[in-house]
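Handout, section B. The chain below has 198 residues.
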Amino acid sequence: MATTLGDFVQITSGHPFRGRIESNKDGDVYVVQMRNIDAEGRIDIKSLTLAKSVRENSLDRLRQNDIVFIAKGSNNTASLVEGLTKDTVCAPHFFHLRIKPNKQNSILAGFICWQLNQKPAQRYFKVSAEGSLQVSIRKKVLEETPFVLPDLETQRKIVNLHRCAMKEIKTYYRLIENRQLEMTAIASDLLNRLDKST
């Protein structure tokens, strides 16, 4: 049976900050912005900005296992909300996704993120994006994203496999960085010896 993302999640806009989001030591919410999303699509909780909210609305506060989706620009990444300890919202250029109450026992938020970040969904977003100076995804387009829902066990396997793959990639990049540092040290040592011998 053909399904769409909107069958499983409620989609709302990010917190309506007016203009630039300014850091405020007396602020009441932390804000997820595009710069807080790393290359693997994870939210860097430690780098969030403390700001003053525009409205007192608990509905737009992020919860564990919510999803934030970058709606503006060409990088339409979905990120899982994990590890929050303070009141947090997402900026206006995000959509805030939350699994519908009647679907919480049949779908994993991590699986939704995984599927939205895969090539079929990403192709759909590229074709459906609107705008000239800055492309964006409308709420209706996101709601109508084609979506495949396997059983929970299959979802868990896919999510776990994805997490393992991300760890392997991280380890791989760390090895590359260490090797580059090693080669730089060797080059510096050789040049220092050359300088001393002349």
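Note. The chain is about 35% helix and 15% strand. Compare this with the example in section A.
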